[in-house]
Amino acid sequence: MDGEIHRVAVLVLDGAKPLDVGIPAQVFTNRPSMPYEVHVCGAAPGLVAGGDGLAYHVAEGLEAFDAADTIFIPGYRHPDREEPPAEVVAALRAAHAAGVRLAAISTGAFALAATGLLDGKRATTHWHYTHELARRHPAIRVDEDVLFVDEGEVLTSAGAASGIDLCLHLVRRDHGVALANRVARRLVAAPYRSGGQVQYIPHSVPEAVGEHFAATRQWALERLGESLALGDLARNANVSARTLSRRFVAETGYTPTQWILRARVDRARELLERSQLGVEQIAAQVGLGTGANLRLHFQRILGTSPSEYRRTFAPGAKLARAGQGAAVGGDGAARASKA
């Protein structure tokens, strides 16, 4: 980790939902292992009426955007009835033009959509409001069946707790899976929920959704280097393979085979970051057999190769890239002065 501080601004709008405000504020709070700092702001300094009987006193107004690297827009009440303030929309557009990353949680997507920056892109919001978002902003490709959508420098997430998944995703993007997993453990959150999972299960499911096979999932995580067939998981859970498959999808959004594959790829990511093991050795350790198999699944799931991932996230990689960037910038400055 290079020690450079990434500044996060959390924008509190009228009717802001407490959980949506608190998630990025807590995930990105500054500590020795977290090179972030959080600034909570509003359209103007002072008291902001929140949702659920709460209010917020923010010390900063939109000037907080000037120093931000990422701006979070938490969800707020009644986005289908009220437009965000014009000065907020203009400030978000200006921040994006200056290279700031914008991320909306839940109904915060409506404020982000008002900027026009989501036009022509995929986006999501809380499932209760997806149809309204699509109706009001037809240029957006609204996806109601995902937890979050990453469109590069503009990101959106579904309701409430999916904001945690979006924040962990950004930590992974910024600093790799090892730090993201440490943050997930601190939050007692699941580290393997990717954006492609459904927001909610539209069919009847057992009462213990999300927990019924928690012990079996942990058992599998401790044995990723071994052969793990559907029957092995079913025997551990003491249910039939058919029952396991049906309920596993309801709990995780993935079939058992898909979930184990993604867990193996995530374990491989951590080994690429934290060890000097070769690709073949890592493939064997995480249960993917051969380097060719690891490369195949890495490309399919992450859109990159193990070697490129290691160049990006191995210790010292960020520092090297920063040095290269400084060198390029220096050359550019020299060329400009000559011109």
Describe the structure.
- It is a single chain.
- It contains 14 helices and ten strands.
- The longest helix is centred in the C-terminal third of the chain and has 22 residues, at 317-338.
- By secondary structure, the chain is of the alpha/beta class.
- The chain has helices at 18-27, 86-97, 108-114, 130-136, 162-175, 177-187, 214-221, 230-237, 241-252, 256-274, 279-285, 291-302, 306-313, 317-338; strands at 6-12, 36-42, 46-49, 55-58, 70-73, 101-105, 122-123, 141-142, 148-150, 154-157.
- A six-stranded mixed sheet has the order 2-1-5-6-10-9, sandwiched between helices. A two-stranded antiparallel ribbon has the order 3-4.
- The chain is globular, with a radius of gyration of 22 Å.
- It has two domains: 6-187, Class I glutamine amidotransferase (GATase) domain (Rossmann fold); 214-313, Homeodomain-like (Arc Repressor Mutant, subunit A), CATH 1.10.10.
- Strand 5 (70-73), helix 2 and strand 6 form a beta-alpha-beta unit.
Provide tags for this entry.
single chain, 339 residues, alpha/beta, Rossmann fold, Arc Repressor Mutant, subunit A, 6-stranded mixed beta sheet, two-stranded antiparallel sheet, 14 helices, 10 strands, 46% helix, globular
Task: Describe, in short, the structure shown.
The protein is 46% helix and 12% strand. It has helices at residues 18-27, 86-97, 108-114, 130-136, 162-175, 177-187, 214-221, 230-237, 241-252, 256-274, 279-285, 291-302, 306-313, 317-338, and strands at 6-12, 36-42, 46-49, 55-58, 70-73, 101-105, 122-123, 141-142, 148-150, 154-157. 38% of the residues are buried.
